[in-house]
């Protein structure tokens, strides 16, 4: 802003000065006589070949004899800028009255000094303005970002502490459930229920481990190598029964070998489970769901496509917002938001493509793990027996 305002002020000032000098030269050429010209101005008159320079000291190099002769013979006025004696002069040579030729000279040194002062003042204002803006920016950003970073750190601490504290009681509950189900004199139905209880506790333990690992991942620790082909196959196997109930054909397609990414296996499994659960829910009976895993340009891609109700393409990016769900849906609208959090936490991205009535396709794109770069870490679930 200071530079903009300064540039306008400078241009206006130079224009005003030049107009003023041109007006003075015109006046002096018409009415001035040698020796009577005002300060910083001189007038020379060539009359019948005789030059009247006056008696005052004139600056070196003046008058401009060439211009006087040229104007005398052509009768056409000449105006020029001359740099001499460490300053600039504006010179107007014009035919005078009674066959005379007049040359008016104006020394611009004070006007040039005014311009330099203005530029200096603008430069100082510019530097001071930038300094003040930088200081204000620094202060404001510290004030706003500081509490945010602290809140995030506190949240991460809470998640790690809470999940760490929950691991021991969960491990004990799991052990107790297993011991009870191993008791010899239990009726079969109670044993089945206890086995189911043990499996649920095991699932709870996975979720808690997952939370702990996610919090550590956010701090830049390496994940473990995870085979997305295996994750996709086991997620499809888990959903097969539900799909069969609804007569939906569920297929999985992969290159045959492992496709490794670095991350938290349970979290990635949850993301794929969520995509599959959504696909099954939004595909009518007799439809088709296909899961495809492949690699492209240093990334592993996992795609879940269905032939279900689809969605409006304009809605695609909103689906990943928390609490966003389709019209008439009575669910939480959290699943895809969690999928995006998991995927971006792994340095990847997720994309949704769909058309009303023509199905939907969700693609997870994750950086492929470089062989040997991911450091295997001891699984935290080892706390559970
Ligand atoms: N395969 C799909 N086909 C069509 N629409 C889908 C599909 N998957 C998700 N959607 C749309 O995206 C919305 C958001 O999905 P999201 O999984 O986030 O929430 P939800 O399934 O409604 O609830 P939650 O997963 O929390 O139980 C859904 O309500 C639905 O409208
Ligand atoms: Mg969902």
From TrEMBL:
<dbReference type="InterPro" id="IPR004358">
    <property type="entry name" value="Sig_transdc_His_kin-like_C"/>
</dbReference>
<protein>
    <recommendedName>
        <fullName>histidine kinase</fullName>
        <ecNumber>2.7.13.3</ecNumber>
    </recommendedName>
</protein>
<keyword id="KW-0472">Membrane</keyword>
<dbReference type="InterPro" id="IPR003594">
    <property type="entry name" value="HATPase_dom"/>
</dbReference>
<keyword id="KW-0902">Two-component regulatory system</keyword>
<keyword id="KW-0812">Transmembrane</keyword>
<dbReference type="InterPro" id="IPR036097">
    <property type="entry name" value="HisK_dim/P_sf"/>
</dbReference>
<keyword id="KW-0597">Phosphoprotein</keyword>
<dbReference type="GO" id="GO:0016301">
    <property type="term" value="F:kinase activity"/>
</dbReference>
<feature type="domain" description="Histidine kinase">
    <location>
        <begin position="161"/>
        <end position="370"/>
    </location>
</feature>
<dbReference type="InterPro" id="IPR005467">
    <property type="entry name" value="His_kinase_dom"/>
</dbReference>
<keyword id="KW-0418">Kinase</keyword>
<keyword id="KW-1133">Transmembrane helix</keyword>
<dbReference type="Pfam" id="PF02518">
    <property type="entry name" value="HATPase_c"/>
</dbReference>
<feature type="transmembrane region" description="Helical">
    <location>
        <begin position="118"/>
        <end position="140"/>
    </location>
</feature>
<dbReference type="Pfam" id="PF00512">
    <property type="entry name" value="HisKA"/>
</dbReference>
<dbReference type="InterPro" id="IPR036890">
    <property type="entry name" value="HATPase_C_sf"/>
</dbReference>
<dbReference type="InterPro" id="IPR003661">
    <property type="entry name" value="HisK_dim/P_dom"/>
</dbReference>
<keyword id="KW-0808">Transferase</keyword>
């Amino acid at each position: 802003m200071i530079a903009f305002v300064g540039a306008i002020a400078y241009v206006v000032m130079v224009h005003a000065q030049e107009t003023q000098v041109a007006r003075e030269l015109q006046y002096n050429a018409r009415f001035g006589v040698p020796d009577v010209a005002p300060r910083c101005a001189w007038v020379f008159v060539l009359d019948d070949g005789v030059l009247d320079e006056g008696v005052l000291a004139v600056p070196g190099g003046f008058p401009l004899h060439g211009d006087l002769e040229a104007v005398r013979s052509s009768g056409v006025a000449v105006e020029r800028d001359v740099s001499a004696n460490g300053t600039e002069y504006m010179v107007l040579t014009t035919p005078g009255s009674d066959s005379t030729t007049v040359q008016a000279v104006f020394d611009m040194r004070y006007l040039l000094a005014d311009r330099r002062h203005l530029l200096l003042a603008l430069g100082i204002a510019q530097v001071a303005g930038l300094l003040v803006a930088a200081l204000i920016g620094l202060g404001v950003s510290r004030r706003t970002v500081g509490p945010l970073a602290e809140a995030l750190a506190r949240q991460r601490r809470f998640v790690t502490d809470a999940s760490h504290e929950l691991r021991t009681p969960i491990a004990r509950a799991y052990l107790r459930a297993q011991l009870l189900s191993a008791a010899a004199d239990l009726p079969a139905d109670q044993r089945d229920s206890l086995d189911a209880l043990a499996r649920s506790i095991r699932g709870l333990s996975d979720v808690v481990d997952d939370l702990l690992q996610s919090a550590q991942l956010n701090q830049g620790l390496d994940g473990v190598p995870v085979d997305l082909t295996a994750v996709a196959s086991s997620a499809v196997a888990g959903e097969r029964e539900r799909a069969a109930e609804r007569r939906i054909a569920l297929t999985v397609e992969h290159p045959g070998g492992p496709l490794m990414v670095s991350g938290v296996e349970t979290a990635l499994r949850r993301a794929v489970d969520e995509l599959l659960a959504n696909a099954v829910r939004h595909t009518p009976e007799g439809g088709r769901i296909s899961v495809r895993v492949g690699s492209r340009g240093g990334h592993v891609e996992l795609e879940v496509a269905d032939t279900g109700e689809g969605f409006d393409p304009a809605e695609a990016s909103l689906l990943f917002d928390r609490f966003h769900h389709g019209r008439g849906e009575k669910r939480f609208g959290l699943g895809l938001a969690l999928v995006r959090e998991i995927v971006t936490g792994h340095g990847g991205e997720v994309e949704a493509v769909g058309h009303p009535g023509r199905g939907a396709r969700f693609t997870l794109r994750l950086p492929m793990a470089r062989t040997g770069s991911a450091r295997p870490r001891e699984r935290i679930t080892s706390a559970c027996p």
